[in-house]
C-alpha cells in the first residue's frame, strides 16, 4: 500500500493543533501547562522541514524525530523525537506500510522512549497508551488481521490506557511532583499519543 507520509504527518499536526488547548489544559492540572504548546510547536516545524514529496517513509520519520528533538522543549520533545527516530529505522527506504513493519516500528518507538525516559508501564506516561496499543496491535497482526483491524484494536487499547492513567499516580515526569494528588487526572502525553495513533489509523484507512 503506497502512502504519502507527508500528508499523514500534516494530519497528525492538524490533530495536535485542534487539541492544543485540551492537551495544555490537561498538563495544567498535573504539570506546567505546556504540552499542547510544545507539541504544536514541534509539528509546525515538522510540516515545514519534511519535504512534501518525500517518498521514503523512513527519511520522513527521521526528519520528524530530529525536528521534534530540536524544537520541542520539556520531556515530550526528546521522548517523541526518539520514538520517531527509532520508527524511522524500521521504515528506512520504504514507501508503504505493512502490518509487520508497523508492529516493529511501534515496538522500536516504545523501546526508544523507555531507554530515554526510564519509565515502565503504570507510571502515568505516554507509555500507558502506547504499550497496550502495541500489545493489541501485535495480537491482531499475529492472528492474521489486516492493518486497519489491527490499528482499530491499537486505538481502542490506547484510549483505554488513557482512562487508566486517571486511576494511577505519576511516578515519572513533572506530574510525579504531585504524587497521589495526580490521581484523577488524565495524562497529557498518553492523550497525545492516542491522538497520534488515531490520526494514523484514519489516514491509512483513507
Ligand atoms: P514537560 O513535562 O517537560 O513540560 P510535556 O508537558 O510536553 O513536557 O510532556 C509531558 C508528558 O511527557 C507527560 O504527560 C508524560 O506522558 C510524558 N513523560 C514525562 N516523563 C516521561 C518518561 N520518563 N517516560 C515517558 N513519558 C514521559
Ligand atoms: Mg508540560
Ligand atoms: Mg514543560
UniProtKB/TrEMBL annotation:
InterPro entries noted in UniProt: DhaK_L_YcgS, DhaL_dom, DhaL_dom_sf, Dihydroxyacetone_Kinase
Enzyme class: transferase
Gene Ontology biological-process annotations: glycerol catabolic process
A Pfam family recorded for this sequence: Dak2
Transferase listed as a keyword: yes
Keywords: Glycerol metabolism, Kinase, Transferase
Residues making up the signal peptide according to the UniProt record: none
DhaL domain mapped to chain residues: 3-202
SUPFAM superfamilies: DhaL-like
NCBIfam families the UniProt entry points to: dha_L_ycgS
PANTHER family (UniProt xref): TRIOKINASE/FMN CYCLASE, TRIOKINASE_FMN CYCLASE
Protein name per the record: phosphoenolpyruvate--glycerone phosphotransferase
Species the sequence originates in: Pseudobutyrivibrio ruminis
